[in-house]
Amino acid sequence: MTILIGATPARTFDDARRWAAEGTALFTAAIDRLEPAGYDTASQLPGWTRKHLIGHVAANADALGNLISWAATGVEKRMYASPEQRNADIEAAATRPADELGAWYLRGAEELEEAMDGLSPEQWGHEVITAQLVTRKAGDVPWMRAREVFVHAVDLGVGITFADLPDDFLLALADEIRTKRGLSDNDLRDVAGPLPEVTAWLAGRPHALVDAPELGPWL
């Protein structure tokens, strides 16, 4: 298939909440497949072990929780103290014991879900600032979390692929990445294949497409 501009239905807030929950369940199931020694082996992201990746996803829950707190209280609370601190925290996570790292991930995922459940419709409309210094509505946080848990469940390298992700999520993800990469219909004219493979290609992940141009990393 080819992803056409404007062909993908706009995602809704309810979609994003559902995907965040489903993605969290998938990422949790991926961790459950690991033996303690498996945490130290390489993930599918260059230079990162699975510990790096799990630490990143755990820290992301805490960081997005900061944005939810900001929306709830009106008191500014940035995702991370600084890019340098974020990177240092991920490196530190790679040295933590597997059981400690897994417990951190589970705690953060549960606390984020509870915090999101507590926001009112008005609070979801409050503006927050992402780690990329982009002003967004708090209502975008569930989508941000869904991307993290679904895509990184694949990146863990435990046998989960883009084909295991929901089609409606893949359509929304492909549409967003295509837009962010500035790819037009003409750019995609010769790229055809199953939706999971096209989305993996757009996301800069391994794929089975033939003759698709190389794209740089994303997320």
Automatic annotation (TrEMBL):
<dbReference type="InterPro" id="IPR024344">
    <property type="entry name" value="MDMPI_metal-binding"/>
</dbReference>
<dbReference type="Pfam" id="PF11716">
    <property type="entry name" value="MDMPI_N"/>
</dbReference>
<protein>
    <submittedName>
        <fullName>Maleylpyruvate isomerase</fullName>
        <ecNumber>5.2.1.4</ecNumber>
    </submittedName>
</protein>
<dbReference type="GO" id="GO:0046872">
    <property type="term" value="F:metal ion binding"/>
</dbReference>
<keyword id="KW-0413">Isomerase</keyword>
<dbReference type="InterPro" id="IPR034660">
    <property type="entry name" value="DinB/YfiT-like"/>
</dbReference>
<keyword id="KW-0670">Pyruvate</keyword>
<feature type="domain" description="Mycothiol-dependent maleylpyruvate isomerase metal-binding">
    <location>
        <begin position="22"/>
        <end position="156"/>
    </location>
</feature>
<dbReference type="InterPro" id="IPR017517">
    <property type="entry name" value="Maleyloyr_isom"/>
</dbReference>
<dbReference type="GO" id="GO:0050077">
    <property type="term" value="F:maleylpyruvate isomerase activity"/>
</dbReference>
